[in-house]
Design a protein that fits this description.
With 352 residues, this protein is mainly beta. The chain has helices at residues 42-47, 106-119, 139-142, 155-165, 270-286; strands spanning 3-6, 12-16, 21-27, 33-39, 53-56, 62-73, 77-86, 100-105, 131-133, 145-150, 169-174, 180-185, 201-202, 209-217, 224-228, 238-242, 251-255, 262-263, 266-267, 291-298, 315-319, 325-338, 341-350.
Length: 352
């Protein structure tokens, strides 16, 4: 693997192709990260700087160099560790500056958050130059709606939470004009439950599953939340979101006092306000699901090749040696190379 390092104007400054290890991770719901571990040399130490960009030629993701660490040991000598996060982490640099009400199409709502806090904010110093929003035409994206309210929340965390709640991915890529392009997307279904796309199956039968670990856990499950909104004491407005009874009821409290009925656009009706509390409750419950995970290592370079037969965010079929079968979403792709060789492997999340 080769990593191209670019300066803040996206001009190439060096190519790193000799290292002891490289880990390059891309994620469906949020930012990825990378780490290069290489023997230290003076030229590389002078060349690679924080806020520079790193690009792996096999990837469409660009990373930001955030940390450069030099370590020295008597036996092994000096080593340089270069690490950082992908372009999605840019959103972590902004908060939702003022009360923002979302009521309608979900993609338009996220576009509003990004426009008001990144692309065209009221305070000029908050603008990030060269940032654009690309509308998705995917009906899995365009058909969603949201009613929510945010004030002072971290922009990245808000978008990540919304996307996880709706099973969407988001990414920021670099186009030919060196603009930061934000887009929502949804992976393709390549499981047995559809007949449009070719199946992608990881199974001992295809000799493409190396090891697996299937987990079901209710340890952190919450299925009912009391959402408390504006006002105080006995007059505080509340909503119950979720269902469950007896031992199957697992409760959690959601403090939503920041959700106000008085907005810049006027006063919300009771129905509109309750819908926003309900949305906050759904977001809270999405952080505490019934966990089903299919972890393990699969062979993704021969029978079914990543980047050709399936992609990040896609839903595929997986079967282990005990016949446990499930639809899973590719939520992470890890590319790794060290002295033992190169491998690419996905991480899955079970789809209900």
């Amino acid at each position: 693997m080769e990593v191209l390092i670019m300066d803040e104007k996206f001009q190439q400054v060096c190519l790193i192709d000799a290292f002891e290890s490289l880990i390059w991770t891309e994620r469906y719901h949020g930012f990825g990260d990378f780490e290069i571990y290489t023997p230290a040399n003076a030229e590389l130490m002078r060349t690679v700087k924080q806020d520079y960009y790193a690009w792996l030629k096999d990837s469409d993701q660009v990373m930001i160099v955030e940390e450069v660490q030099i370590s020295t040991e008597v036996e092994t000598g000096g080593h340089l560790t270069i690490s950082g996060r992908s372009l999605e982490s840019i959103l972590d640099r902004r908060i939702i500056w003022q009360q923002t009400v979302l009521n309608g199409n979900l993609q338009n709502g996220i576009k509003k958050l990004i426009t008001e806090n990144v692309i065209s904010p009221a305070i000029g110093d908050r603008k990030i130059a060269g940032f654009v929003f690309q509308d998705s035409q995917d009906p899995h994206v365009t058909g969603l709606s949201i009613r929510a309210q945010y004030t002072g929340d971290n922009l990245y965390e808000t978008i990540e939470t919304i996307c996880k709640a709706y099973n969407l991915g988001f990414q920021i890529t670099l186009n030919e004009q060196n603009q930061f392009v934000f887009m929502l997307y949804s992976g393709a279904d390549r499981s047995y439950d559809q007949s449009v796309n070719p199946y992608v199956i990881f199974s001992p039968r295809f000799e493409n599953i190396i090891n697996s670990n299937y987990l079901e856990s209710k340890k952190t499950l919450k299925n009912v939340t009391l959402v408390a909104g504006e006002d105080e004491g006995t007059t505080r407005r509340t909503r119950i979101v979720g269902t469950g009874k007896d031992l199957n009821r697992r409760e959690i409290y959601t403090d939503a006092r920041d959700v106000q009925s008085e907005t810049q656009d006027g006063k919300l009706s009771d129905a509109e306000y309750n819908a926003q509390l309900d949305q906050r409750g759904r977001e809270k419950l999405s952080e505490h699901p019934f966990t089903k995970s299919f972890e393990g290592q699969v062979e993704s370079t021969q029978t079914f090749v990543y980047g050709k037969d399936f992609y990040k965010g896609d839903i595929v079929q997986i079967v282990n040696e005990y016949g446990i079968e499930s639809k899973v979403r590719v939520i992470e792709i890890v590319r790794a190379q060290d002295t033992t060789g190169y491998e690419t492997y996905p991480t899955f999340s079970v789809v209900e």
